[in-house]
Amino acid sequence: MAIRLIIFDLDGTLVDSSTDIATALNTAGKILGVSPVTVREAEGLIGGGLTALIDRLLAKEGINVDRTALLKGFLDTYSSHLTDHTRPYPRVKETLVALDGIAKAVLSNKTASFTVEIVRRFGWTGFFESMQGGDTIAEKKPAPTAVLNLLADFKVHKEEAIIVGDSLYDVEAGRSAGIHTVAALYGYGSPGFDAKADFRVQAFEELLPIVQKLNNGA
Asked: Less Cβ around it within 10 Å: N or C end of the chain?
Protein backbone atom coordinates (compact mmCIF):
# COMPACT_ATOMS: atom_id res chain seq x y z
CA MET A 1 0.00 0.00 0.00
CA ALA A 2 1.21 3.53 -0.78
CA ILE A 3 1.97 5.95 2.03
CA ARG A 4 -1.00 8.26 2.64
CA LEU A 5 -0.17 9.75 6.08
CA ILE A 6 3.06 10.94 7.71
CA ILE A 7 3.05 11.87 11.40
CA PHE A 8 5.85 14.14 12.61
CA ASP A 9 7.18 14.91 16.06
CA LEU A 10 8.10 18.59 16.55
CA ASP A 11 11.06 19.22 18.87
CA GLY A 12 14.17 17.48 17.63
CA THR A 13 12.45 16.46 14.41
CA LEU A 14 11.06 19.51 12.61
CA VAL A 15 12.76 22.18 14.75
CA ASP A 16 15.72 22.55 17.08
CA SER A 17 14.16 24.30 20.08
CA SER A 18 16.70 23.27 22.70
CA THR A 19 18.24 26.71 23.28
CA ASP A 20 14.88 28.41 23.95
CA ILE A 21 13.82 25.57 26.24
CA ALA A 22 17.11 25.71 28.16
CA THR A 23 16.83 29.47 28.53
CA ALA A 24 13.28 29.25 29.87
CA LEU A 25 14.26 26.51 32.31
CA ASN A 26 17.20 28.53 33.58
CA THR A 27 15.21 31.75 33.90
CA ALA A 28 12.52 30.02 35.94
CA GLY A 29 14.96 27.91 37.91
CA LYS A 30 17.20 30.79 38.95
CA ILE A 31 14.44 32.29 41.08
CA LEU A 32 13.99 29.00 42.92
CA GLY A 33 17.67 28.18 43.32
CA VAL A 34 17.87 25.54 40.61
CA SER A 35 21.28 25.25 38.97
CA PRO A 36 21.38 26.21 35.27
CA VAL A 37 21.46 23.55 32.59
CA THR A 38 23.39 23.61 29.35
CA VAL A 39 21.66 23.32 25.99
CA ARG A 40 22.99 19.77 25.70
CA GLU A 41 21.57 18.90 29.11
CA ALA A 42 18.22 20.43 28.14
CA GLU A 43 18.12 18.19 25.07
CA GLY A 44 18.28 15.19 27.38
CA LEU A 45 15.30 16.48 29.35
CA ILE A 46 13.03 17.04 26.33
CA GLY A 47 10.33 14.48 25.55
CA GLY A 48 7.21 13.40 27.35
CA GLY A 49 5.72 16.88 27.64
CA LEU A 50 6.29 19.87 29.90
CA THR A 51 5.45 18.11 33.16
CA ALA A 52 7.99 15.41 32.37
CA LEU A 53 10.52 18.12 31.46
CA ILE A 54 10.19 19.71 34.90
CA ASP A 55 10.22 16.36 36.69
CA ARG A 56 13.42 15.31 34.90
CA LEU A 57 15.09 18.59 35.77
CA LEU A 58 14.25 18.20 39.45
CA ALA A 59 15.35 14.56 39.46
CA LYS A 60 18.63 15.55 37.81
CA GLU A 61 19.25 18.26 40.38
CA GLY A 62 18.08 16.08 43.26
CA ILE A 63 16.41 19.01 44.98
CA ASN A 64 12.99 19.69 46.41
CA VAL A 65 11.50 22.94 45.11
CA ASP A 66 8.01 24.17 44.36
CA ARG A 67 7.28 22.17 41.21
CA THR A 68 4.17 24.18 40.39
CA ALA A 69 6.06 27.47 40.68
CA LEU A 70 8.87 26.15 38.49
CA LEU A 71 6.43 24.98 35.82
CA LYS A 72 4.59 28.31 35.88
CA GLY A 73 7.84 30.24 35.63
CA PHE A 74 8.93 28.13 32.69
CA LEU A 75 5.62 28.58 30.88
CA ASP A 76 5.60 32.34 31.47
CA THR A 77 9.08 32.71 30.03
CA TYR A 78 8.84 30.18 27.23
CA SER A 79 5.51 31.46 25.91
CA SER A 80 7.13 34.85 25.28
CA HIS A 81 10.28 33.43 23.67
CA LEU A 82 9.09 30.44 21.64
CA THR A 83 11.27 31.08 18.62
CA ASP A 84 14.02 33.44 19.76
CA HIS A 85 16.60 30.83 18.84
CA THR A 86 14.45 27.94 17.60
CA ARG A 87 15.18 27.07 14.00
CA PRO A 88 13.92 24.51 11.49
CA TYR A 89 16.28 21.71 10.65
CA PRO A 90 17.78 22.03 7.16
CA ARG A 91 15.48 21.42 4.19
CA VAL A 92 12.33 20.83 6.22
CA LYS A 93 10.18 23.10 4.07
CA GLU A 94 11.59 21.77 0.80
CA THR A 95 10.93 18.20 1.92
CA LEU A 96 7.39 18.96 3.02
CA VAL A 97 6.77 20.52 -0.39
CA ALA A 98 8.13 17.40 -2.09
CA LEU A 99 5.73 15.28 -0.02
CA ASP A 100 2.74 17.06 -1.53
CA GLY A 101 -0.23 14.75 -1.97
CA ILE A 102 0.44 12.87 1.28
CA ALA A 103 -1.53 13.91 4.37
CA LYS A 104 0.68 15.16 7.18
CA ALA A 105 0.17 15.67 10.93
CA VAL A 106 2.22 16.99 13.83
CA LEU A 107 1.94 14.92 16.99
CA SER A 108 3.94 16.40 19.85
CA ASN A 109 3.93 15.84 23.61
CA LYS A 110 4.48 19.59 23.85
CA THR A 111 1.52 21.83 24.74
CA ALA A 112 -0.73 22.12 21.69
CA SER A 113 -0.86 25.93 21.68
CA PHE A 114 2.95 26.09 21.57
CA THR A 115 3.06 23.42 18.86
CA VAL A 116 0.58 25.24 16.64
CA GLU A 117 2.23 28.62 17.17
CA ILE A 118 5.72 27.37 16.31
CA VAL A 119 4.42 25.71 13.14
CA ARG A 120 2.59 28.95 12.24
CA ARG A 121 5.65 31.12 12.75
CA PHE A 122 7.66 29.09 10.28
CA GLY A 123 4.91 29.27 7.70
CA TRP A 124 4.15 25.56 7.73
CA THR A 125 0.49 25.58 8.74
CA GLY A 126 -0.67 24.75 5.22
CA PHE A 127 1.39 21.57 5.17
CA PHE A 128 -0.39 19.92 8.10
CA GLU A 129 -3.99 18.76 8.22
CA SER A 130 -3.70 18.07 11.95
CA MET A 131 -1.57 19.47 14.78
CA GLN A 132 -1.90 17.94 18.24
CA GLY A 133 -0.13 18.39 21.55
CA GLY A 134 0.16 16.54 24.80
CA ASP A 135 -2.70 18.42 26.38
CA THR A 136 -5.16 17.69 23.56
CA ILE A 137 -4.77 13.92 23.33
CA ALA A 138 -6.04 11.19 25.63
CA GLU A 139 -2.59 9.67 26.18
CA LYS A 140 0.84 11.04 25.35
CA LYS A 141 3.40 9.12 23.32
CA PRO A 142 4.67 6.40 23.76
CA ALA A 143 1.04 5.31 24.05
CA PRO A 144 -0.28 4.53 20.56
CA THR A 145 -3.70 6.08 21.22
CA ALA A 146 -3.15 9.37 19.37
CA VAL A 147 -1.55 7.59 16.42
CA LEU A 148 -4.46 5.19 16.15
CA ASN A 149 -6.89 8.11 16.35
CA LEU A 150 -5.09 9.82 13.48
CA LEU A 151 -5.32 6.66 11.39
CA ALA A 152 -9.06 6.63 12.00
CA ASP A 153 -9.43 10.35 11.33
CA PHE A 154 -7.62 10.11 7.99
CA LYS A 155 -9.15 6.72 7.14
CA VAL A 156 -5.80 5.12 6.36
CA HIS A 157 -4.53 1.61 7.05
CA LYS A 158 -1.55 1.01 9.32
CA GLU A 159 0.59 0.04 6.34
CA GLU A 160 -0.14 3.46 4.77
CA ALA A 161 1.29 5.54 7.63
CA ILE A 162 4.70 6.61 8.93
CA ILE A 163 5.76 8.32 12.14
CA VAL A 164 8.99 10.34 12.18
CA GLY A 165 10.57 11.29 15.49
CA ASP A 166 13.77 11.64 17.46
CA SER A 167 12.90 9.71 20.60
CA LEU A 168 11.90 6.34 21.94
CA TYR A 169 8.46 7.84 22.56
CA ASP A 170 7.91 8.19 18.81
CA VAL A 171 9.34 4.79 17.89
CA GLU A 172 7.34 2.98 20.56
CA ALA A 173 4.11 4.81 19.71
CA GLY A 174 4.52 3.91 16.05
CA ARG A 175 5.44 0.28 16.69
CA SER A 176 2.54 -0.18 19.11
CA ALA A 177 0.18 1.29 16.51
CA GLY A 178 1.63 -0.97 13.81
CA ILE A 179 2.84 1.76 11.46
CA HIS A 180 6.23 2.39 9.84
CA THR A 181 8.75 4.13 12.11
CA VAL A 182 11.54 6.52 11.13
CA ALA A 183 14.14 7.54 13.71
CA ALA A 184 15.54 11.06 13.30
CA LEU A 185 19.13 10.54 14.43
CA TYR A 186 19.95 14.25 14.13
CA GLY A 187 17.61 15.14 17.01
CA TYR A 188 17.78 14.75 20.79
CA GLY A 189 17.30 10.99 21.09
CA SER A 190 19.25 9.02 23.66
CA PRO A 191 21.73 6.42 22.39
CA GLY A 192 19.99 3.32 21.10
CA PHE A 193 16.50 4.84 20.92
CA ASP A 194 16.38 3.80 17.25
CA ALA A 195 17.13 0.12 17.86
CA LYS A 196 13.64 -1.01 16.87
CA ALA A 197 12.89 1.65 14.25
CA ASP A 198 12.18 0.51 10.71
CA PHE A 199 14.27 3.29 9.17
CA ARG A 200 16.83 5.88 10.27
CA VAL A 201 17.68 9.29 8.84
CA GLN A 202 20.68 11.51 9.49
CA ALA A 203 18.96 14.51 7.84
CA PHE A 204 15.33 15.44 7.34
CA GLU A 205 15.38 15.19 3.55
CA GLU A 206 16.43 11.53 3.77
CA LEU A 207 12.76 10.83 4.46
CA LEU A 208 12.01 11.24 0.74
CA PRO A 209 13.76 8.09 -0.53
CA ILE A 210 12.17 6.11 2.30
CA VAL A 211 8.71 7.16 1.21
CA GLN A 212 9.60 6.42 -2.39
CA LYS A 213 10.88 2.98 -1.45
CA LEU A 214 7.72 2.14 0.45
CA ASN A 215 5.54 3.42 -2.38
CA ASN A 216 7.47 1.45 -4.98
CA GLY A 217 6.88 -1.66 -2.95
CA ALA A 218 3.14 -0.96 -2.68
From this structure: C
